[in-house]
Amino acid sequence: MPNVAVIGAQWGDEGKGKIVDWLSEKADVIVRFQGGHNAGHTIVVNGIVYKLKLLPSGIVRKNKISIIGNGVVIDPWALLDEIRKIEKQGIKITEKNLYIAENAMLILPLHRELDGIREDAKNTDKIGTTRRGIGPAYEDKIGRRGIRVMDLADKTILSKKIDMILFHHNSIRKGLKQKMVNKKKLINDLKKISSRILKYSKPVWKKINEFKKKKKTIVFEGAQGVLLDIDHGTYPFVTSSNTVAGAAFSGAGCGPDTIDYILGIVKTYTTRVGEGPFPTELKNDIGNKIGVKGKEFGTVTNRKRRCGWFDAVLVKQSCIISGIKGIALTKIDVLDELKDLYICVAYKLNGKKIDYFPSSLQDQIKVKPVYKHFDGWLKNTNGAKKWENLPKKAQTYIRFIRDYCGVSISSISTSPKREDTILLENPFKKY
Ligand code: GDP
Ligand code: IMO
Ligand code: MG
C-alpha cells in the first residue's frame, strides 16, 4: 500500500475513523495533522466501540506508531483523559506507540472558555462550535502567542509565554466583563500534567522522514471535512483549520512527495452538525428517518446531526479541491428502507442553473438543489461484503456517484464494523 491521506469530503462524520482503522491493517504509521478534540472518530472491532478524538485511529491496532502532528491543537487534559479511557478498553499507550509533535499548539482552559462565551453571546449568528476551544487556540497560533508542547519543559519560558498570552486574553476578558485568568493556577495545573505529556513529545517531522526512508507505510488521518475547511468551506460556518489534503504536509512536517494517494470518505447521504448552509437538508420525516437509522448523533457533543440527500455537486467540488483520487463510500445500508432517493446534481441560483457551490454565504443560503430521482432498493445491504451482493438499484446509485464525481469508488462500507467493507478495486495498484 502507498502512503494515503484520508480526507472527509463533506461536513465531517463520514466514517473516517472506520476507514483509517481498516487501512491501518496494512500501514505502519498513522498521523493526525489538523483539528483537535472537536473530531470524533468511531471504530467498532469485535463488538467494542472506540471513540477517538485526538488519538489517531491506528492506536487500536498493535505494533503501529500513532502520531499527533504539529497541525493539531491539543488540550492536554482532554488528551490524558482520552488515553485513560482507551487504556481502560485494553489498548496500551506508551511513548513507543504514540508520538506528539513538540511544536504542536496547546488548547488551554481560557480557549475553551472564550469559545463558549462567544457562542453564548451570539444569538442568530452562532457557529454551533463544539465549544472545545479549537478556534481561539488556532487564533493564538496565528497570532504568534500560542503555548506549544515543548514549552512545558521550561518553567521560565512557560511563565514568559503565559504572560504574553494573558496580556491578550485578559484584555478581551475585561471587555467581556469576565474574570481575569489566574496565572498561578494555570501554571500549577500545567505543571501537574507536564511530564505525562512531554514523554510523548518528539520532532515528529524527523521521525516521519525516517519512516519514509525506511519505506514504511504512512496513513494521514484528516479530521472534519472539506466543507468545514477554513478557506474552502461554508465560511464562517467552518472549523478553524484547513481540512483539505494539502494540510497534511504542513500539519505533519513533510513534503508533497510523501503522500501517494488521497482517499475521500463520502457518506451516501449528507449530514452536518452545527449551524450553516445545507442545500439538501431534509427538515422532515425522511430526514429524521435517516438520522435514526444512521445513528446521526455527534460523537463529541451528542448533538443531533442534520440530515439530507446526497449532494453530488458538493462532493465533486471537494474531490477537485482536495485532489481526491478515490472515494470510500460509507453507510449505504442507512438508505435501505427508503422507496425514493434523490441526488443533487446542480443548483438554481436566481433562476439560473449552476454546477458548483458558490463561495458567498448569501448565495450558499439561496441556492435551490436540482435533483435526480433514483428508485430505492428496499433490500438489506447491512453487512454486505461483496459488490455482487448489493441490489442492482444500489449499484446504479453508486455508479452514478462515481460517474458524476469522476472519481473511482475504491470501497463501500455497509456497517460500522471493521470487516463489513467491500473492496471494489485495488485503487493503489499503479503503485
Ligand atoms: P468520522 O468522524 O468521519 O470518523 O465519523 P464518525 O465516527 O463521527 O461517524 C460515523 C458513524 O457511522 C460512526 O458511528 C460509525 O460507527 C458509523 N459507520 C461507519 N460506517 C458505517 C456504515 O457503513 N454503516 C453504518 N450504518 N454506520 C457506519
Ligand atoms: P470529525 O473529525 C462534524 C463542526 C462543528 C461546528 C464547526 C466549528 O468527527 O468529522 P469547532 O469546534 O471546530 O470550532 O466547530 O465545525 N465540526 C464538526 N462537524 N465532524 C467533526 O469532526 C467536526 N469538528 C467540528 O459542529 O459546526
Ligand atoms: Mg466524527
Please provide a brief summary of the model.
This protein is an alpha/beta fold. 32% of the residues lie in helices and 20% in strands.
Give the helix/strand layout:
Layout: E1 4-8, H1 16-24, E2 29-32, E3 41-45, E4 48-52, E5 65-68, E6 73-74, H2 76-88, E7 98-101, E8 105-106, H3 109-121, H4 134-142, H5 155-175, H6 183-198, E9 201-202, H7 204-213, E10 218-221, H8 247-252, E11 261-267, E12 270-272, H9 285-293, E13 306-308, E14 310-311, H10 312-322, E15 326-330, E16 340-349, E17 352-354, H11 361-366, E18 368-375, H12 392-405, E19 408-413, E20 421-423
Parallel strand pairs: 1-10, 1-11, 2-5, 2-10, 5-7, 6-8, 7-9, 11-15, 14-16, 15-19
Antiparallel strand pairs: 3-4, 12-13, 16-17, 16-18, 19-20
Bound molecules: guanosine-5'-diphosphate, 6-O-phosphoryl inosine monophosphate and magnesium ion (MG).
Guanosine-5'-diphosphate is lined by residues 8, 12-18, 40-42, 44, 295, 299, 330-331, 333-334, 413-416.
3D architecture notes:
The protein has 431 residues and is of the alpha/beta class. Helix content is 32%, strand content 20%. The chain is built from twelve helices and 20 strands. The strands form five sheets. A ten-stranded mixed β-sheet has the order 9-7-5-2-10-1-11-15-19-20, with helices on both faces. Strands 14, 16, 17 and 18 form a four-stranded mixed β-sheet that branches. Helix 3 packs across helix 4. The protein starts with a strand and ends in an 8-residue tail after the last strand. 48% of the residues are buried. 6-O-phosphoryl inosine monophosphate is lined by residues 8, 11-13, 38-41, 127-130, 132, 134-135, 223-225, 228, 239-240, 273-274.
